[in-house]
Design a protein that fits this description.
Length: 300
């Protein structure tokens, strides 16, 4: 029997496309054995394994985005910025600079109080109780190791996997100090096999690596360096998947949560366009897939 594993990558608002992919798989009655998520992929994957309904996850996320003041949490509203006046842009820039200066004394731009409020969305349950199986990827800031969290409290695991360095505070758990799994594992294609999956469908929602103008300050240099590292890491990890689908969300920023419905629809479109490939993946012999993965490792 085919044991399909989903590897859901991180990408902030772009990760909402995972909901669209899950909606199509659910409609087509394609069984999912396990889900491993990173950052937003962990958020969506955990909610799906708990509620068992992509539509329920969609409703929860849309309601959350509608009710939570994203700007209060330090997440910019890109829609408002496009038509902002000079004074609005100036105030916004001063706010940002104040946050950066304040963060030199703190561990993150978002406070622990706000982080706790955000992750109340995730059920406070034991990971091992979930069906399909679930795990979340996080990075231990002290050792540098990537950890596939397969047991313990679900909310804590997802919070650890989503702790974007500098934005969310690190999470203490199991004697480690966790930050966003994207720091070491942007699309966890290989890790979902640890949950017993014998074929892996990865959903890549990473951004495009476009040629940029010369950086104007130290922050732009740091952001660009991180973008380059993350992009190449994603490309390397995706080789571990048997099939990769890439919703057309690469042009969105991580903060464009107000475009949630459009991003979710892009996930649906991508899954529908690749439906025949997904069904073919489910029908293939496990030994054939294992040999192909072995050849990939040999070539690399």
């Amino acid at each position: 029997m085919a044991e399909l594993g989903l590897a859901l990558g991180g990408g902030g608002a772009r990760g909402l496309a995972h909901i669209g992919v899950l909606k199509v798989l659910e409609k087509e009655k394609i069984d999912i054995h396990a889900i491993t998520g990173c950052s937003m992929g962990a958020v969506i994957g955990s909610l799906y394994t708990y509620y068992g309904s992509a539509e329920k996850v969609e409703d929860l996320m849309l309601d959350f985005i509608d009710k939570v003041d994203l700007e209060e949490l330090g997440i910019p509203n890109n829609e408002e910025q496009k038509d902002a006046s000079f004074w609005d842009e100036f105030v916004s820039e001063m706010k940002f600079r104040f946050q950066v200066v304040r963060s030199l004394q703190d561990l993150s731009l978002i406070s622990e109080e706000h982080a706790t409020k955000i992750f109340e969305l995730i059920p406070d349950v034991e990971i091992s109780s979930l069906t399909p199986k679930f795990s979340a990827i996080a990075t231990d800031l002290l050792s540098g190791n990537e950890i596939n969290i397969r047991n313990g409290n679900l909310r804590s695991a997802v919070k650890a996997s989503s702790a974007i360095p500098g934005i969310f505070p690190p999470v203490r758990r199991d004697g480690m100090y966790f930050v966003d799994g994207s720091a070491s594992e942007s699309v966890p294609a290989g890790k979902v096999r640890e949950l017993g999956a014998d074929r892996v469908l990865a959903v890549d929602v990473s951004h495009e690596l476009k040629t940029e103008e010369e950086p104007k300050n130290v922050l732009e240099i740091l952001y660009r360096t991180e973008d380059i590292s993350s992009y190449h890491l994603s490309m390397e990890r995706l080789k571990e998947a048997d099939l990769v689908i890439s919703p057309d969300v690469h042009g969105y920023t991580w903060a464009e949560f107000k475009k949630a419905k459009t991003i979710i629809a892009e996930g649906e479109n991508a899954a529908k366009e690749n439906l025949s490939e997904i069904q073919r993946l489910m029908e293939r012999y496990t030994i054939t897939l294992e040999l192909e993965q072995l050849l990939k490792k040999f070539k690399s």
